[in-house]
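Lecture notes, unit on binding sites. The following record was shown on slide 14. It pairs a sequence with phosphoenolpyruvate.
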Amino acid sequence: MTRKLAAGNWKMNGTGAALDELNAIAKAHSAPAVDILICPPATLLMQAAALTADKPLDIGAQDCHPQASGAHTGDISAPMIADAGGAAVIVGHSERRENHNENNDLVREKAQAAHDSGLTAVICIGETLAERESGDTLLIIEDQLSGSIPDGATPDNTVIAYEPVWAIGTGKVPSLDQIGEVHDFIRKNLTERFGDTAQGIRILYGGSVKPGNAAEIFAVPNVDGALVGGASLKEADFSPIINALEDEA
Ligand code: PEP
């Protein structure tokens, strides 16, 4: 069975001093029963990867450009992330979809670029509050799944993160039934498209996961881990979440 995954998204937080927290996370989990991925800002990628090179903890980026190189000021490419020691990259985070007008086609191209560079693409999907309230959640999820995932997705190169936009950074969390409904739907959709291999594609929940709610979320069927924002910045918050996931492994 594929290992569960605790992934941290540091967003635009952290200068060199934050590497102390990374060190502490690595130290607290020297032989984890789950996979651990930390996605620091791009400025820390190389240092973070070097620091954890001999540790059971992967480093990833938070975005990549679909092209390998070129005149794209400020962007970083998937080959650059791999070269810096990254193993994965988040694509299609709702903050990118919203702040940078990223649509499903672009997200799929970014995920493809990740695959082409040997990186795992952590592909984020999720409905807004308005979409949930109008009863369109599963339609939106279906649209994002078919539009954002490349045809060559496998359990090794792809992770799906279901992140209701209204739950990110807000302290609001869907009910366990709501999480379960969407995760079951995602599994069914992936299986229809990719066959039995889709059983191994990890589906993470993301949105205000904290030490206090992690265990109940991880007990929901088809939740294979979490993508954690705020609570991944400090070892004291992230460690209990990793421990809760290990209890379900
Ligand atoms: C995220 O940024 O992907 C996220 C889920 O953030 P938070 O855990 O802070 O809600």
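Take-home: The chain has one domain: 5-248.
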